[in-house]
Amino acid sequence: MKDIKPAILLFVVFTVICGGIYPAVVSGIASALFPKQAAGSFITDKGGKEIGSTLIGQPFSDAKYFWPRPSATSDFGNNPMASGGSNAGPTNPAYLQTVGERVKALRDTGVTGQVPADLVQASASGLDPHISPESTLLQVPRVAKARGVSEALVTMAVTHATETRQFGFLGAPRVNVLELNLALDRLVP
Amino acid sequence: MNAYEWLQTIIFFVVLLALVKPLGSFMAKVFQGERTFLSPVLVPCEKVIYRIGGVKPEDEMGWKRYAGSMLLLNLMLFVGLFAMLMTQHLLPLNPQKVPSFTWQLALNTAVSFTTNTNWQAYVGEQAASYFTQMVGFAVHNFVSAATGIMIAITVIRGFVRRKTSLLGNFWVDMTRCTLYILLPISIIAALLLVSQGAIQNFSAYKSVPLVQSTNYDKPKTDDKGAPLKDAKGNPVVENVIVKEVSIPMGPVASQEAIKELGTNGGGFFNANSAHPFENPTPLSNFIEILLILLIPGALTYTFGVMVGNSRQGWMLLGVMLFILVSAFGVLQWAESSGNPLVAKLGVQSINMEGKEVRNGLAGSNLFTVATTGTSCGAVNSMHDSLTPIGGMMPLSLILLGEIIFGGVGSGLYTMLAFAIIAVFVSGLMIGRTPEYLGKKIEVKEMWMSILVILTAGVTVLILSGIAMITPQAVASMANPGAHGLSEVLYAFASMSNNNGSAFAGLNASVDFYTLLGSLAMTVGRYVPAIAVLAMAGSLAEKKYIPPSLGTLPTDKAPFAIWLTLVILIVGALTFFPALALGPIVEHLTMRGGH
């Protein structure tokens, strides 16, 4: 049993190295090289106050705002304290009913044709900051009407906010909903 | 798949394969005690660690002492984390003042992180302090990963060494693995992830105003916490208006890097790698999938180098790649075909439920097969919401025994057990002496290989069976019907094979799952680990038999095909009935429009 001593001592040593030194070194370098990202990619207002993170989606239901993806987080949608998906199985009747209600809510605003999947199916994190370009364009008439501006103006804001695939091939094209809505509020208050 | 998805998938595998040889030969050098480019910096650190620990590096161990040291260190890990979770409220770095864990949950969590499973029955952002995440979980991520790698290396030494009982010094292997391999890669990876937007700080949770306030109905409770009901028996609710939300912070990136690299998989947040703070961009997603497959892939090359024939390693990698790519193909097909029941409602026919827009279908699906083919268990999409056949892919990859790349180390040693079975069965069929890598395969090796292969499977089936007749276990299912069975099967498959991902609708925080799950994780980790160490001990004592005309070549395509068949047949014979009752029934129901 001469290995009990190294077991205890090396446990302590590795706790110090992996649990103390390693995260401290990463934090130090990260805050020097990428301070904004390390802090949470926050958007600040003119006074420097944090008004949201570009990475954390917010709930929107008003006609004048673009709507984000459905979120299944507990208490209310896009609750950052309870990240997670619906975990609904594909044949669950309650789930199918929920999707049906979401489709109807869109139809009530005048949406016709096939609805993009991402706009009626809940995201994995419940905080997905993005929707697909198709889901964005489909909301343009509603948003333009609610704000009393031309569709061309809103489409322009959408085009401006659309992110392409990273390096031209990675991931999917997308629109950041919070950034788009904030831009619209600045454009047509 | 569109052209972009093809392109990113192909580029991914090219990058992975390009890294196998450099990292694999580096690891071989580290474990054979040779000098590497990191030696000038790390040799002095090593010496200090040995002096502190009272370790004599030249003191080699037989398999029993090696296994004993491994178990002692793992026991320390378990006790340390259990104590930390029970006293979390008293420890520093807890700006949110989160309380301690219950003993059941602490037991489950401590076993989970010690066994490299990282099954999580708690919600990270609500239940774990920064101290727990960093000093507790992160350390386990390193040490449990190193444990797996060292066992694999020891088995390789069993094949390489001749007529000796000595297999190496556990403490030296452990130290070198952590210092030379895990820490340097983690530091680079963590910084890359921060550059993409993964957070790394110690701030308290940030309060931000909502642009548009939201509201919800909160059930009222009496002073004992029981829900209040009105005269008609309906719950009493009050409408709460939410004007600002709290955004959790923390040292996420450092945790994320080792969580993927060590195939641990325990997320900082509940949503795991789907959370934008853990996995913010398509590039971070690419890096994370790469980290998951990196060490298990490169270890096959290390194996080839150490046994003196790198084709032996490429053969194993080929088998793994074939099954991984096949599973990816089926999953991608199933998810892009979508759910006909949803399509009927007028929705585009792809399945985006439980996926993130930025990752796209291919980025989500590749992550899913990587995390379940290895024993990682991190998720960037919610497996519970996959289509039935789609969901059967991660489930099947876990049930195969975590060998399709597999956990760091554990994947390779389990794969070697399969190779031994394949050699033995083919030996019987064609009348050749069962030999593998110059060592005769005898009764002891067969017993140990069978223990390695069947332990997890038997555990899964018995515990899932018990769950089906236990009311508490059945009540935990989130989805009715065949899907509920899939949830339970997945839970025990995940825990027994030390994966840690979940069909997460299942409420796993009840005693039935925390306690039996702890048992499944312990058995699934240590029975195979000790069995392969015993096998390594037995192999090392054998003499080397040079290949003759009667030897089956194990570095050629026919053996690779044969090994693939053995893996698939063992998997199918063990689990087909259970899969037929879960995902297959659900698929037929869905196609039938019910």
If you had to describe this structure to a student in words, what would you say it looks like?
The complex is a heterodimer of chains A (189) and B (594). Chain A folds into two domains: 4-37; 40-187, no CATH class. Chain A has helices at 4-33, 35-39, 93-107, 133-137, 140-147, 151-161, 177-187, and strands at 42-44, 50-53, 130-131, 162-163, 174-176. Chain A is built from seven helices and five strands, in the order H-H-E-E-H-E-H-H-H-E-E-H. Chain B has 594 residues and is mainly α. In chain B, helix 6 (130-160) packs parallel to helix 8 (252-261) and helix 12 (360-373) packs parallel to helix 13 (388-399). The two termini of chain B are 28 Å apart. The relative contact order of chain B is 0.12. The interface between A and B is large, with 102 and 133 residues.
The total tally of domains of chain B equals: 3
The coarse silhouette of chain A is extended
Number of strands of chain B: 4
The helix-and-strand class of chain B reads mainly alpha
By DSSP (H or I, 4+ residues per run), the number of helices of chain B equals: 19
Q: Report the uncertain regions of chain A.
A: none
Number of extended strands of chain A? 5
What's the number of structural domains of chain A? 2
Q: First CA to last CA of chain A: what distance?
A: 74 Å
Question: Regions of chain B with pLDDT < 50 over 5+ consecutive residues?
Answer: none
How would you state the average pLDDT of chain B, rounded?
93
The number of helical elements of chain A comes to 7
- First-to-last CA distance of chain B: 28 Å
- β-strand percent of chain B reads under 5%
Task: Write the element-wise H/E pattern of chain A from the N-terminal end onward.
Answer: HHEEHEHHHEEH
Largest sheet of chain B: 2 strands, antiparallel
How much helical structure, as a percent, in the residues of chain A? 40-55%
Rg calculated over all Cα atoms of chain A: 22 Å
From the alpha-carbon coordinates, what is the Rg of chain B to the nearest angstrom? 24 Å
